[in-house]
Design a protein that fits this description.
With 259 residues, the chain is of the alpha/beta class. It has helices at residues 31-47, 69-73, 77-95, 112-119, 146-154, 156-165, 171-177, 189-200, 205-217, 223-240, 243-252, and strands at 2-4, 7-13, 16-21, 28-29, 52-57, 62-64, 66-67, 100-105, 108-110, 122-126, 130-132, 169-170, 182-184. It folds into two domains: 2-200, 2-enoyl-CoA Hydratase, Chain A, domain 1; 205-252, Lyase 2-enoyl-coa Hydratase, Chain  A, domain 2 (Orthogonal Bundle), CATH 1.10.12. It is built from eleven helices and 13 strands. A hairpin with a 2-residue loop joins strand 1 and strand 2 (7-13).
C-alpha cells in the first residue's frame, strides 16, 4: 500500500487499483486529497497494467463531503481559480480515456464529492448513500464538472431540480434516475465495486474504450454521425483490435487472450 497524506492506494488484483480517501471527519476535497488522487493516477500510469480504479472512502458516513470550504473562504480570487483548476484537472484526468473507474459510495457525496463520483465511469452506492450539489446555498455553482456531468446522467430537468434546490437525493432515487448504477446493502459498496471491477478487467480494454467513446459521442453528435462513428469503431476492432481474437475464442470455446 502506498500513502500520500489523505489518500492511499494499492493493487488488490491484477489490473485493479483501489484508491481510498482517508481525511476525517468528512473527506473534504482540499489540496491533500487532490494531490493524493493525482499521485494515485500517476501510480496507475506508471504501473502500465491498471485497467480499473475503485474509488472508496474509509471515513464512516462520508464518501466526500465536498470542496474545502475553509480553504475557499481564506483565499483570494487567484487562489480560488487555482484551486478550482487543480480539482477540475484531477477529475478530468480520472474521467479521461484509457481506463475505467468505479466509485464505491457509502454515506454522503456532496458537491465536489458527487463531482468526483460522477467523474468515475460507474457508481455503486450503499443504501444509506446521499447525493447532492448544494453550491447554490452558499452563492456558488458546481465548479468541477457538476453542471456538465449531472445533466448527462439524469437529464436537464432532474439536474436543474437537484442543483437549484440544493436538495439531497437518496440511493433509491439516485438509482431510479440514473445517477448511480447499482445499489447494495449498506456497507457493501466497496465489495460490490471490487466485484464489478473484477468483471470489467476480463473484457477487452480496447472494446470498452470504444464503447465509452461512442456512448459519450451520442450526447454531442447527430444520430447519423454517431452511427458512422459506431461503424468506424467496430470496424477498427475487427481489423486491428481484439475482435478477431474474441471471435476465434468463441468458436474454439476458450477464454480470449485480449491485448
Amino acid at each position: 500500500m502506498t500513502q500520500h497524506q489523505a489518500v492511499t492506494w494499492e493493487v488488490v488484483a491484477p489490473g485493479i487499483l483501489r484508491v481510498t480517501l482517508s481525511s476525517p471527519p468528512a473527506n473534504p476535497l482540499g489540496k491533500a486529497i487532490i494531490g493524493g488522487l493525482s499521485d494515485a493516477l500517476d501510480a496507475a500510469d506508471a504501473a502500465g497494467d491498471i485497467r480499473v480504479l475503485v474509488i472508496e472512502s474509509s471515513v464512516p458516513g462520508f464518501f466526500a463531503a465536498g470542496a474545502d470550504i475553509k480553504l475557499m473562504s481564506s483565499i483570494d480570487s487567484a487562489g480560488f481559480a487555482e484551486y478550482g483548476d487543480q480539482l477540475r484537472a484531477t477529475l478530468n484526468r480520472l474521467a479521461g480515456p484509457g481506463r475505467l473507474s468505479v466509485a464505491a459510495v457509502e454515506g454522503v457525496a456532496l458537491g465536489g464529492g458527487l463531482e468526483l463520483a460522477m467523474a468515475c465511469t460507474l457508481r455503486v452506492a450503499g443504501t444509506s448513500a446521499k447525493f447532492g450539489l448544494p453550491e447554490v446555498a452558499i452563492g456558488l455553482i458546481p465548479g468541477a464538472g457538476g453542471t456538465q456531468r449531472l445533466p448527462r446522467l439524469v437529464g436537464r430537468g432532474r439536474a436543474l431540480d437537484i442543483m437549484l434546490t440544493a436538495r439531497q437525493v437518496d440511493s433509491t432515487e439516485a438509482l431510479a434516475i440514473g445517477l448511480v448504477d447499482r445499489v447494495v446493502d449498506e456497507g457493501g459498496a466497496s465489495e460490490a465495486a471490487l466485484a464489478l471491477a473484477t468483471t470489467l478487467v476480463r473484457s477487452s480494454s480496447l472494446a470498452q474504450a470504444a464503447i465509452v467513446r461512442v456512448v459519450d459521442a451520442a450526447f454531442d453528435l447527430p444520430l447519423s454521425e454517431g452511427m458512422a462513428l459506431e461503424r468506424d469503431e467496430v470496424g477498427a476492432l475487427f481489423d486491428h483490435g481484439d475482435g478477431r481474437e474474441g471471435l476465434a475464442a468463441f468458436i474454439e470455446k476458450r477464454r480470449p487472450n485480449f491485448s
